[in-house]
Target: UDP-glucose 6-dehydrogenase
Amino acid sequence: MKITIIGTGYVGLVTGACLAELGNDVFCLDVNQQKIDILNGGGIPIHEPGLEEIVRRNRAAGRMTFASDVQAAVAHGDVMFIAVGTPPDEDGSADLQYVLEAARSIGRYMNDFKVIVDKSTVPVGTADKVRQAIADELARRGAALEFSVVSNPEFLKEGAAVEDFMRPDRIVIGCDSTPAGERARALMRRLYASFNRNHERTLWMDVRSAEFTKYAANAMLATRISFMNELANLADKVGVDIEAVRQGIGSDPRIGYSFLYAGCGYGGSCFPKDVQALERTARVYDQELLILRAVEEVNARQKYVLPKKIRARLGADLHGKRVAVWGLAFKPDTDDMREAPSRVIIGELLRLGATLAVFDPVAMDEARRVLALDFASRPELLARVEFSDTQMAAVQGAHALVIVTEWKAFRNPDWTQVRAAMQSALVFDGRNLFEPFAMAEAGVEYHGIGRATGVPNY
Ligand code: UDX
Model:
């Protein structure tokens, strides 16, 4: 099938590459010429395991085209995916300007029936706005052309994006029940046929419910995390091991084990933004989502838990103290630093006077870029950050090690070597990577999150 993807960000590029891999003829459009140049040069603008090979293979096979030519892009696809960014507005609602600009471009240049698929995470009612924007452009041209807007939210996780796309738990598709909507449904069924071969994975619903489902999923996952984080903080105080509790409650199939890991807070491009946007939608309808407000607040506070523990253990004045930080990306297997807890933790430790040696296996360049922006008005603070070449270089001479991201490379360090390199074998683990008893055996003073080993009254 002929597919056009508008926007070559995370979602767009992964969708385009995976659909090309399935044999479709994919045109990827981006207004950012620099991104197009990178892609045409054989590179990819993001770090995502497996993606580069798929893009290379399908480009070579002629199944992927990258260009900034809007007219050619609209002419190409029978199915047009809108996968542009929806950054938060100042008030937390999703900013739809890029989505609507994409819609207007489609209306401006389309010459035959098109299925327009909202792939970006967009609030309930966005499909109506997209439909209107296209209709307005068509009316302006005096063109009477049929089209249908479909909602097909993406549930992929960064770091596992290709795998998630290729092996989805479910495919949510919202279609209208008009004749054009039925035509769109038939095309979408054909496009996703190979995913449904063994068993039907597609959940068909109306457009608004599909839009809402994406927010509901992310809000539920964020809620689980904040709930566990809040309990973990209490566990620290009452001498309970949150990991035992996780297993104890996860074994109930109604609860399940996943997404119950306490830590130093969630980050990324989705949870923080989507929780806020859903709250914002509710407010438009005069409703307040009390649970989500708490989820957000708990998460904001959770990013300060590690600095608080460090402060309780080493004192409020960290001048003269060297702290190593392992992990800067908001999660492993990505260089994404959006809303990453590391940014808050670094800021707080610097404010307390510490000197930092930071390391991430992939996100070093991104960290340099983002931290320079975070500390644009306080360069004297950033001057106390050393960007280390290896994880061992970071711990050299450190009074404490803080683990912020659970990269595989951090899971099994040689503690004898780490201890020998550090001034004091003191570890604050924001991802609960180790068993407290094993750390005690290794001669390391260990503070996890809710592992009954925390500093009391931090
Ligand atoms: C998320 C959703 O999982 C995905 O379905 C959606 O399409 C986009 O948003 P992503 O942001 O890529 O994906 O990462 P995810 O793996 O979900 O992790 C999000 C954050 O939650 C990370 O900061 C992670 O460290 C944190 N997290 C996750 C926890 O703190 N505890 C957990 O138990 C799970």
